[in-house]
Each structure stands twice: as structure tokens, then as C-alpha cells.
Amino acid sequence: MTRRGRRLGLIAAALAVLAAAAFMMLFALRDSIVFFKSPSELGEVKAGIRLRIGGLVKEGSVNRPEPQVATFTITDRANDVKVSYHGALPDLFREGQGVVAEGVLEAPGFLRADTVLAKHDERYMPREVVDALKKQGVWQGGDAVPTAVSPPK
Amino acid sequence: MIVETGHYALVLAFSVALFQTILPLWGVSRRDDGLIGTAVPLALAQFFLVLLSFAALTYAHVASDFSLVNVVENSHSAKPLIYKISGVWGNHEGSMMLWVLILALFGGLAAVCVPAMPQALRAAALGVQASIAAAFLLFILVTSNPFARLDPAPIEGQDLNPILQDPGLAIHPPLLYVGYVGFSIAFSFAIAALIEGRLDAAWARWVRPWVLVAWIFLTLGIAMGSYWAYYTLGWGGFWFWDPVENASLMPWLAGTALLHSIAVMEKRDALKIWTVFLALLAFSLSLLGTFLVRSGVLTSVHAFASDPTRGIFILVILVFFIGGSLGLFAWRAPLLKPGGIFAPVSREGALILNNLFLTVSCATVFVGTLYPLVLESLTGAKISVGAPYYSWTFLPLALPLLALVPIGQSLAWKRGDLLGAAQRLTVAFGCGLGAAVLLLAAVRPGPTLGVLAVGLAIYLIIGAFSEIFSRLRGRGAGGARQWVGRAFGLPRSAWGTALAHAGLGLSVLGLAATGWGVERILPLHPGESVEVGPYQVTLIGLFPRQGPNFHETVARVSLAANGQIFGTLEPSKRQFTVRQMATTEAGIRTLGLGQLYISPGEQNGDGSIDLRLYWKPLVTLIWGGALVMGLGGLLSLSDRRIRLGAARRARNNRRALTPGQPQPAE
Fold it and tell me: CB within 8 A of B306, min separation 6: which ones?
């Protein structure tokens, strides 16, 4: 094979792998991403969609109807979403604190969560939650960060 | 006084770094030996000043000097000594100090090691290295000063985040940073080569050990971080495709590609421009990782509280160095003499495929990590990209790459023999296939991907040694003594390669075995038992206990196999008093290569406690494999042909050769 032929072959192989990878990426990005919404932004969302919802855990809303099951309400002080979660909650899950729940919106205002993220440090709050609360005008603190992860299933 | 000295040393280090950037590079452009000669002493001075400054900060933490904001916010007088020391880098300011310390350390090492290197090349590289140091020192001084005072000083500190009060903090960040920042040397030498306009196999010989060192530490650092997350987060996960983990995976993928391409460059004087590009890419991705973690753009375990000016500052550094280096590359690379070409079926041909798959998989991780950030800044929509994305994109690229590893290893340089390679790999392939079939048919059917991965792992492990085996056998028959003698006679880098590839296989085996894991989540009353895989776990009882700066509720359980009790575990829920924060301490018992993992949850009103119990067969192989990979790297590093001092001898030998002549293959 000539030098030129080899180089072309190499470039063709590289392009083939890149194209396949790009195709997979586009496919995966269409199907496996999850949008984040605050309770107030749920108006236009259809039921049956996978979502992350962030806000504060409403005071007095946490119930444990049976072991391993928790129900609570996420609020951004303007609107609420009820959440049902099967599994162990992260250590820093607490009423009045920031939380992000991921799961399927089964009905308007009701999320069946399979993942609950809480803060990783009591001084900070998930950034998405801060932004959501800022939009509702209830946030007074500075900028914030970390989350802890609860098990996916 | 000590604190002021540390602050002053940091300012001095910044000005020394500025001089170290300007003088040597000016000297190189003017061919002035006096100016070129300043590079080495300035690099050493900069390292000692940063070291002094870091020591002062460490002293303040150990002595609990609560007149420093950094100490107040992250320490407490009751904190155990090891966490007072590791707490130095358990916060934004301190972790940047550690970053710069390691950068200066590498600069200092590059100044004293490798005596045979041309002075101009070394001076230019040290100048580039210093420019990075200057940028980050300025960043620390302007936006993240760890020596800021607090007046009046409080009597007590706010304690370190309890999640960070773990031996992992003492090990994980230093390992990871040596890996991240170690690629700066390859970056600086790549820029220096572009400035000098000269690039040959000798350059690869000088830079290769540095790449290997960085790669070893990055491998160990990532594995350590993964194990830390596994035992501390309380539910047995070890990789989350969290953007910050991706931030360390991307330089690892690019660095692994670089490690392989630089070997081709050294041996065959080919792939030169590509190797330089990878050297720039690996450190650029390290810088990107620093930006992602330290700027506060991400929500993650690793992000400390941060303010937006820091993000913009690091972004400017990032754009300057990545943009500048790629610009220089685009301008200067066409001037470099291209390397030789070679047959597609050869070890170098296989290494090109390795590079192709590694860089493309790196690109998929890059897109998955940055797409949400870009989308949010463009449209405001917030999304998260999770594990499904990576199983669709990263896995399909990783599997063929893994299958290729033993084949590439079995091909000879220059002209490989695919049929011969296939023959050498028959045993490995047969064993892998046999294991998969056996799993499917006889033992315990598991997930298809798991079975496939087990087969692949066995093939990888055995295949890693097939080249060595055939080299031992190839030189005629002989008794055991001759075999041992030949085994010692083989270059250590051959053993290093085999070991590193086998380590990769071990990790894959550990990952594959997750498919056979057992998970039980249920409430247990004291006295009740539960089956977890082959073991029985009984909750003995719950009792409180007092620690140095926390109190905890311990759930004591006994472990039994076939009714025979062989041990107890004490997983607990800790409550840290100062920060009013709870953590979960999982109880872990290693049995063979697997682990029993027990993590307590909520206590229920009826006296029971929610427990998560896992049996994870072969799970320790995931990190053990990384350890073996690191050992393989270390063994290669000790090879006399790769060792740092080797360049001089090699250069003396090279004088006899005409320029451009390929290096003799081994």
C-alpha cells in the first residue's frame, strides 16, 4: 500500500469510529437525559415523564407509612409536589432543607421517586434548588453547592 | 508570625514564578546561556517557597490557629491530628495550595533530574511550567487566600465536613493531584518542543517516564477515590458518572493514550505530532477538571463553597492555556518533520487503534459532562446526564478496545503477524470463552453483559501474559532453571506491560461480578436474621457510643456461614456535634475477594432498624486491578531503558546513528 493509501485508510477508520460514536451520543442524549424542574415549572409537563424536581422539604410533610417508604412534599414556597420514595433516605435529608428527587411524574403534582439527593454539607444546598428558590424570591443566602446521593435502583 | 511568613513566601513564589517564566524563554529566543541558566535555580527557589508556604498553612491547622478564616471554617481543636493535617487540603483554598505545591514539585524535579537534556529545551519547559504556576499562584493570592485573618479570633472552629473526616482524604487528593498535575511536565515539554521546532525520539525518551509517573498516580488516585465513595456513601456504589469523576477520567483516558503513543514515538520515531497533541490534551483536560471542580459550576460532593469570581478566574486561566497551546500547536506543528509510516498490522498499528478508541471514548465522556453546562448556559434548561448515556456511548467503545489489548500486545513492532498472534492467544481466548460458556450453562446464569465481561476479563488476564509466555518458550526448550533465568532476562517493561494489562482484566472481572451481587434492604429487629448471598447476618442489638467529636448509634451484627458464626460487624450512624450533621459508617467484611457490606438506615418506631445488606462477590478486584495496573507502571518505570537517567546513555548511543533513522526495535 502507498503512504497516501495508508493515511487515507487510517483517516477513514478514525472517521468511522467517530461517526459511530457521534451517532450513539446523539441517540443517548435524546433518550437518557433528565430535565430538572422546580414545582412551579411543572405546569407544562405531561405525566409519565422522568424528571428531577428540586426545592425544600416542606415542614411537617414527611411520613413513613411503612418501613423503607417515605412520602414528603417538595415546595418552592409557591407550588408543591408530593413525592413517594421507596428506599433509604440520605443522611442529610431533613424537613425545611434542600432536596432533589428524581423519578417519574405519575400524575400532576405527584412524583414516584427512585433517587433522592440531599445536601452533602449542612452549609450548602444543591445549586439547582438555590436557582429554583431564587426564582420564587424566597432565597436569602449566598451561593451554594453539594449533594449527597441516594441509591439508584 | 509563621502565618505571615507563609503568606510572604507565597507572594515571593509568585514573583519568582514570573521571573522563571520570562527569563528562560527570553534566553531561549536570544540563545543567551546566562538567561537559560536561570531556569534551574529559579525552579528550585519557587518549589522551596511554595513548600514553606504550605508548611506554614499546615502548622496553622495543626496548632488550631483560629485567627485564620481557613482554619476556623474547616477545623476544630477536638479533631484528630490526621484530619488536622489532611484538613489542610479538605477545603477550596488548601486544595489549590496542594495543587500548586505539586506543580512546583514537578518543576523542581524536572530541574534536577534528567541531566542529559539540552539546556535550552529544559529552560523552555521550566519557563512554561512556571507560567502555569504563576497563573495559579495569582489565583490563590487574589481570590482564595488561605492566610486571610479573622479578628477577633473565635475560640473554637466550625470543624471539617464530617464526610471528609476519613483516611481517604489523606490519600485520595494527593494521589490524584500528582496524577493530574504530573501531566503538566509532558505539557511543558510539548510546548517547549513546539517553540524549539525540534521533535525526535529522544524527546519521547525524556518525557515518557514523567507520563508514566503521572499515569500511575492518576490510576491509583481514581481507584482510591472510587473506594472511598464506595465505603463512605453507604450504599455500595463505586462509580456514579458524576461530572467530577468524569473530570478525572478524561485526563486518564487521554493520558493512557499518550502513554501508548509516546512508546510508539520512542521506538519507531512515528506519531510525533499526534503525541505532542495528546500531551497538550492530557494536561488541558486536567485543567478542565480543575475548573469543573474548583469553580463551583458543578453540584457535587467535591465542590466546596465557592464564589463566582473564582470560576471566572479559572476559566480565564483555562482559556489562556488551552487556547494558547492549541494555537501554538496549529501554528508550529506543520513545521515539524513528520514521522515514519508503518504497516497497519503491527504493534504500532494496534496502538493507533488503541489511541483512536481511547480518544473517542474520552470525547463521549467530554460531551456527557459538558453538554448539561452548555445547554444550561444557552437555553437555561437544566438537565442531568446519567449512567444510561454512558452505557450507550462509553461501553460500546470500551469493549472492542479491551478485546484489542492482548492482540496488540502479541503483534511485533514494524510487521506483525495476525495469524501468529491469534495462535499465541488461542489459550487465552479459549479460557475466556470457556468461562463464559460455563457460567451460562452450568454454574449460575447471570446478566448477559456480565457473562460477556467475565469471558473478556479472563481472556484479558491470560492474554496479558501470552506474549511473555511465547517469548520464554520461543528460545528453545529447557528446564525450570532456564525458564526462570529467561524470565529474569526479559526487560522489566515487558513484565510491566503484562502486569498493567492483567490489572485491567482484574478490574473488568470485578466490574463484571457486580452482576452476581445480592442486595437486601429491610428492617430488622434485634435477634432477627437475614440471608445475604451465602451468609447469614443477625442483628444483635443497637447501642450508643461516644467518639472524639461525634456520638454514634452502633448496630452490632453477627456474621455466619452455614450456621457457623465467624465474626461481627459494627456499622453505625454518626452524629457530629459541631456541624449537627449525620454520616453513615458502613460495616464491611472482606471474605475472599468479595465483601459483605452492611449499612444502617433509619430506626423505626417499633425498635427495628432499616438495614441495607449487600454481598458483593469479587468486588475488591475492581480496585485491586487498579493497584496491579499501578504496580505494572512502577515495574516499567524501573526498566533501565525508561528510567530517568537513561536518556544520557541513549543519547550517547544515538550519536552513532544518522538523524531520522528509526530506533532499533527490541
Answer: A143, A145, B92, B294, B295, B296
